[in-house]
């Protein structure tokens, strides 16, 4: 009976996380804090589970994302008036951040 040689198992490599500078760290902290606040204020089920602000359905396994109505690149800021919490399909399905959405928000 002939033995097959064992293959050498290579250990998993740990990829280092990208370093975050102070400005990025402050922005990430502000986003987390704002998302928690918006989740409390937004629509919820009877059991207290947060719903998507766009479709008002329970999110799938991917969860909810903070959405900027006016892009950061277009001069928008991470502020209460400029952000909503959407599920991933609504956020990825929207073809950019439409100005009609912003206009309807201002009218309300």
**SS summary, helix count:** 3
Q: What string gives the helices and strands in order?
A: HEEHH
Query: How much of the residues is beta strand, in percent?
Result: 5-15%
Uncertain runs are 95-100
What oligomerization state is this entry in?
Answer: single chain
**How much helicity do the residues have?**
25-40%
Strand neighbour order, sheet with most strands: 1-2
Descriptive account of the structure:
With 108 residues, this protein is α+β, with helices and mostly antiparallel strands. The chain has a domain at 45-107. It contains 3 helices and 2 strands. The protein has a two-stranded antiparallel ribbon. The longest helix has 20 residues, at 22-41. The termini are far apart.
Give a topology summary:
Layout: H1 22-41, E1 64-68, E2 83-87, H2 88-93, H3 99-107
Antiparallel strand pairs: 1-2
In short:
This protein is α+β, with helices and mostly antiparallel strands. It contains three helices and two strands; from the N terminus they run H-E-E-H-H.
What would the keywords be for this entry?
single chain; 108 residues; two-stranded antiparallel sheet; 3 helices; 32% helix
């Amino acid at each position: 009976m002939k033995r097959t040689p064992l293959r050498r198992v290579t250990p998993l490599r740990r990829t280092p996380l990208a370093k975050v500078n102070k400005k990025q760290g402050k922005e990430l902290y502000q986003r987390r804090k704002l998302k928690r606040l918006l989740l409390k204020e937004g629509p919820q089920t009877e059991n207290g589970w947060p719903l998507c602000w766009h479709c008002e359905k329970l999110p799938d396994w991917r969860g909810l994302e903070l959405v900027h109505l006016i892009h950061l690149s277009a001069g928008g800021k991470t502020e209460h008036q400029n952000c909503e919490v959407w599920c991933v399909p609504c956020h990825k399905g929207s073809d950019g951040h439409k100005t009609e959405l912003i206009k309807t928000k201002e009218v309300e």
